[in-house]
Structure to design on (356 residues):
């Protein structure tokens, strides 16, 4: 199963958008305008389509800002803290996220793919 | 949920007559036997499954048995807890809300996600007139009912556009279950308090629930309906 193609199909249906604008680098919230109800639908569709348990907070990086605050408060290295709390994302991706925090919600299509692969492995 | 109460069994019987397949939950062997005894003429037209409020493992066990095929959910479950607010054992208060609010929220969340896959579902929460007008000693009971009503209301608000709707029914005095003895002991008082001068029958409440499960009631969503003979309308 091509995970990206499956996710594209799901997003096209939920967000009523064209397939071609979705790539692994597409931001779900910043670019596609996904709202909380869309993300809920997405979580249910991923659970059903890939037959995996989905924790909404994890897959949509909802606690990212909380982890950033906690790392600062506890004087922890932010990258190490995120590696521990978001184990389905690579160090490279987490470095990208840290550099991108000022830009708004960082969630990308490729993060969903990483979560699905991690849950399936 | 709460399938071993008389009202749930009356509803199950009406659902079977309407060619629906009810699944009744029970929390112990006594409940399972009570359902079986009262629906013995309806074998293979219903099923019963274990669900104990507070036992989180029992949710997954329940949903494993029902699979992804849930069209309706009627929630009768409510633990009783009578105590004056200022005299309650605070440990009991914590566990009461964990069982009757947090646990319910988990069930509702999981059932709603199953219904989302079908883009269709109807949930009816059986609250109580006590949510609007509690007697002394019913503060925690009423608080848990109101909190649960809010969960159902918001679900209907959030997912109404996805085909999932909710209704809360607040029955008053019912001549059934835990209210039966109270009604027998206080019949004169009740007649004086209720404008229709009688308690509700379990049959008429079951009929109302069936209506709120039907397509005819599709316009009711995220709302509370009082069915109390006018009990809570006046002073």
């Amino acid at each position: 199963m091509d995970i990206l193609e499956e996710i594209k199909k799901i997003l096209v249906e939920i967000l009523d958008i064209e397939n071609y604008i979705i790539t692994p680098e597409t931001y779900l919230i910043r670019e596609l305008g996904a709202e909380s109800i869309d993300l809920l639908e997405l979580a249910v569709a991923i659970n059903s389509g890939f037959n995996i348990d989905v924790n909404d907070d994890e897959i949509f990086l909802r606690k990212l800002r909380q982890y950033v605050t906690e790392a600062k408060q506890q004087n922890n290295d932010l990258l190490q803290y995120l590696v521990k709390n978001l184990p389905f994302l690579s160090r490279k991706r987490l470095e990208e996220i840290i550099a991108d925090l000022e830009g708004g919600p960082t969630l990308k299509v490729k993060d969903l793919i990483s979560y699905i692969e991690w849950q399936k492995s | 949920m709460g399938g071993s109460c008389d009202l749930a069994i009356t509803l199950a019987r009406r659902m079977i007559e309407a060619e629906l397949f009810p699944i009744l939950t029970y929390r112990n062997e006594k409940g399972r036997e009570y359902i079986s005894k009262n629906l013995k003429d309806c074998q293979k037209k219903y099923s019963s499954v274990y669900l104990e409020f507070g036992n989180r493992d029992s949710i997954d066990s329940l949903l494993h048995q029902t699979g992804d095929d849930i069209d309706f959910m009627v929630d009768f479950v409510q633990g009783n807890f009578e105590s004056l607010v200022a005299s309650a054992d605070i440990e009991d208060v914590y566990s009461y809300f964990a069982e009757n609010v947090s646990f319910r929220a988990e069930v509702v969340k999981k059932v709603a996600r199953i219904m989302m896959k079908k883009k269709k579902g109807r949930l009816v929460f059986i609250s109580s007139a006590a949510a609007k007008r509690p007697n002394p000693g019913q503060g925690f009971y009423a608080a848990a009912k109101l909190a649960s009503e809010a969960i159902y209301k918001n679900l209907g608000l959030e997912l109404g556009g996805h085909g999932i709707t909710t209704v809360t029914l607040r029955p008053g005095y019912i001549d059934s279950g835990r209210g039966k003895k109270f009604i027998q002991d206080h019949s004169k008082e009740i007649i004086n308090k209720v404008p229709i001068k009688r308690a509700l029958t379990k049959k008429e409440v079951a009929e109302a629930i069936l209506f709120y499960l039907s397509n005819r009631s599709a316009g009711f969503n995220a709302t509370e309906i009082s069915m109390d003979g006018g009990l809570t309308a006046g002073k």
Notes: DSSP finds seven helices and no strands in chain A. The longest helix of chain A spans residues 36-50. The helical segments of chain A are 3-15, 36-50, 56-59, 64-73, 78-85, 91-100, 109-120.
